[in-house]
Design goal:
Blueprint (H helix, E strand, L loop, with lengths): L5 H22 L9 H18 L2 E10 L6 H69 L6 H27 L3 H25 L8 H16 L13 E6 L12 H6 L5 E3 L17 E12 L6 E13 L9 E12 L2 E13 L9 E12 L2 E11 L2 E11 H34 L7 H8 L7 H12 L6 H45 L4 E5 L3 H6 L10 H11 L1 H11 L2 E5 L23 E4 L4 E4 H20 L1 H4 L13
Parallel strand pairs: 8-11, 11-12
Antiparallel strand pairs: 1-7, 2-6, 3-4, 4-5, 6-7, 8-9, 9-10, 13-14
Length: 652
């Protein structure tokens, strides 16, 4: 199927959404029970049509390395600081909102609701106690699963908590007083007014926080709020400065095409166009250096103090290592900064939407990929693939991550262990030093910190503590400060080594994975994968790994990151068929008899064919066969549907 123009797809999407909204409006006239079957079918068809149109669009984030921005750097730092304050204010608002609602429920729920809440609180305490014992068991036995006794103890407690929550919800519905309804209505109105006040205070008419940055921080708070997590667990999105949110679905006037960005006429985002020769094979990296300009706010009128339409722009030198797709639309522009040891690391991220060229499915060629790791000569084998044409395997191969990358990751982990060991030694020294001091001569602010120093896990706590000690001198404080400063210099040095080694090794590994996915896509456009959870995959025993080496083996599996490879494969292929992993490595690809692996689980012997088979080759061959059988039985569209419970915990 040929790719359409982005504008044509958008028109189709808008027309389909208008039909869907009209049907939804018609459905509101009926209750769920009385909804006509014909109208229900029309709504389902309209929804399916929208989903099919969306499949023609591809959204992708292009992340480019950047140097420190130039021009208006003070204004940029102010945006980061305002973002931090805005998040802090939203968290305070969230705490106040929860307390206010709890007071309303307590006031109108009476003693009965208080009893139900107390009962649930006691169950939560019991669950916490069992969780602590489970964590202690896992640490003691170097296991990722709890014992059968602890799991059996946890199961009824979870059921009790669920029942207690249902009782509280049921009781709330019985509160039918007019005063309670008025209080809830006033509470909702207070939330709207307070949220509006905070946005106005920090917006362009107030302190001047860019509306894009404001939106992304508020979105992070709202997303976490849906999970009802504690305020301390909210995602920190203050390191993002968003130039513009360009969503053609909702705000048509905010659309920005790639040509508009390259023309450098738009005040929100501009980027200097590079010649096509810069992206040709063999072109130097320097030829791909360019400059992007991002709007981070608006200038103030010195007389009135109000914001004007004159933009505040920062220039960001970037390396555009990849060419942006033609006929695309920019949805988001984000500038990231992250502290890496002693310096800031900058990245520019462009979220781009473009038409996805989808070819017709060719079931004559199907690729099966078996994700599995094994130590081989020269590195780690991460995946094995087999290309099936008709009923025969015509080509196969493997993906090997070289030892130099694994060794780099191993070295980074060793450096991290040294960092943690230095922190623990520092804690012991400070605790011993504190016992010898006269507590009366130590300032209260320092004494309060020293009491809890043995519980600190964060290295940044010690760096903040250095400032506290240096600003509050007392007898023998010089001795403490000297030890802390020496530790800080050592920590910064090791942190730079750890982060640098890890970043370079992961980047090299991911480059190998992208090239592997690109190479496979040239061979076929249908991919077969095992529909299994990678969490379970990590727990399963691996070939060539003794039980006493299981801890090291699991760490090596984290280095291999099969989830990252699977993500790249799924992005590259038009059709991905997930098959049942049962018996994929147990049956002979030729005669379908069960293989005998014996003590060596890496190679299996077929008695019928009298052949020795590599386990991963057997897996990839059978995956391609199962994918073909699934397509022939239910069709390519049904075969490519994702399972309802998709594994979300990808490695790195």
């Amino acid at each position: 199927m040929d790719s359409k123009k982005l504008s044509d797809i958008r028109k189709e999407q808008k027309a389909a959404e208008d039909i869907f909204n009209a049907l939804q409006k018609e459905a509101k006239k009926f209750s769920k029970k009385d909804l006509p079957e014909e109208l229900k079918n029309k709504i389902d068809e309209a929804k399916e049509q929208i989903d099919n149109i969306k499949k023609q669009l591809c959204s992708k984030a292009f992340v480019f390395g950047a140097l420190q921005p130039t021009g208006n750097i003070e204004a940029l730092n102010e945006q980061y600081y305002l973002g931090f304050l805005y998040k802090k204010e939203l968290l305070k608002f969230e705490v106040a909102q929860r307390q206010r609602y709890a007071e309303i429920e307590t006031k109108y729920g009476g003693e009965e609701l208080a009893k139900l809440r107390e009962s649930k609180k006691q169950i939560d305490e019991k669950i916490k106690e069992v969780k602590d014992r489970i964590a202690e068991y896992k640490k003691k036995h170097s296991s990722k699963t709890a014992s059968a006794e602890l799991r059996a103890e946890m199961k009824p407690l979870k059921k009790e908590r669920e029942e207690a929550s249902e009782k509280i919800s049921a009781f709330k519905k019985t509160i039918d007083s007019a005063a309670y309804k008025v209080a809830k209505s006033e509470h909702r109105q207070w939330i709207k007014e307070e949220y509006k006040r905070i946005r106005t205070e920090f917006g362009q008419s107030g302190k001047g926080l860019g509306w894009g940055t404001q939106a992304v921080i508020a979105e992070a708070v709202q997303d976490t709020r849906k999970g009802r997590k504690a305020p301390s667990t909210f995602v920190d999105r203050t390191r993002e400065v968003v130039a513009a949110q360009i969503q053609t679905d909702k705000v048509t006037r905010m659309s920005m095409t790639l040509d508009e960005a390259f023309s450098c006429t738009d005040n929100r985002f501009r980027i200097k166009r590079l010649p096509d020769s810069a992206f040709e094979k063999g072109a130097s990296r320097k030829s791909r250096h360019t400059v992007a300009q991002i709007k981070i706010g608006s200038q103030k009128n010195p007389k009135t103090g109000r914001r004007t339409h004159v933009p505040i722009m920062v220039e960001v030198p970037i390396c555009m290592h990849r060419k942006l797709p033609q006929d695309s639309m920019i949805k988001w522009v984000k500038l990231f900064r992250e502290k890496d040891a002693n310096k800031w690391m900058w990245r520019l991220s462009l979220s781009v939407e473009y038409p996805r060229p989808i070819e017709d499915a060719d079931i004559s060629s199907i690729l099966g990929v078996d994700l599995g790791w094994r130590q081989v000569e020269g590195g780690w084998r991460i995946a094995h693939w087999a290309l099936r044409k008709s009923d025969t395997i015509v080509e196969s191969g493997e993906l090997i991550v070289p030892d130099r990358i694994i060794n780099k990751l191993t070295h980074a982990d060793k450096v991290k262990s040294v960092i943690d060991e230095n922190r623990d030694n520092l804690k012991e020294w400070i605790s011993a030093w504190y016992k010898k001091q006269d507590k009366r001569k130590i300032p209260d602010i320092v004494r309060d910190e020293l009491k809890n120093v043995h519980t600190w896990l964060s290295h940044n706590k010690f760096i903040v503590f250095i400032r506290v000690v240096s600003g509050n001198a007392f007898p023998n404080s010089d001795q403490l400060l000297d030890v802390l400063v020496k530790w800080k210099h050592r920590y910064k040095h090791l942190l730079a080594i750890w982060k640098g080694d890890k970043r370079r090794a992961i980047s090299a590994r991911n480059t190998i994975y992208r090239q592997f996915a690109h190479m496979l896509r040239k061979k076929a456009n249908i991919l077969g994968l095992e529909g299994m959870s990678l969490v379970a995959f990590k727990e399963s025993p691996q070939p060539d790994s003794a039980k006493e080496e299981s801890k090291t083996a699991k760490r090596q599996l984290q280095y291999s990151a099969p989830g990252t490879l699977r993500k790249y494969l799924e992005e590259k292929f038009d059709y991905v068929v997930r098959v049942n992993p049962a018996d994929t490595s147990q049956l002979c690809p030729d005669c379908r008899d069960r293989l005998d692996y014996g003590d060596d689980r890496a190679f299996g012997y077929c008695k019928s064919c009298q052949k020795m088979w590599d386990r991963d080759l057997v897996g990839s061959s059978n995956i391609s066969l199962k994918a073909l059988e699934k397509i022939e039985s239910v069709g390519i569209v049904e075969a490519c549907k994702k399972p309802k419970k998709e594994d979300k915990k990808e490695s790195e």
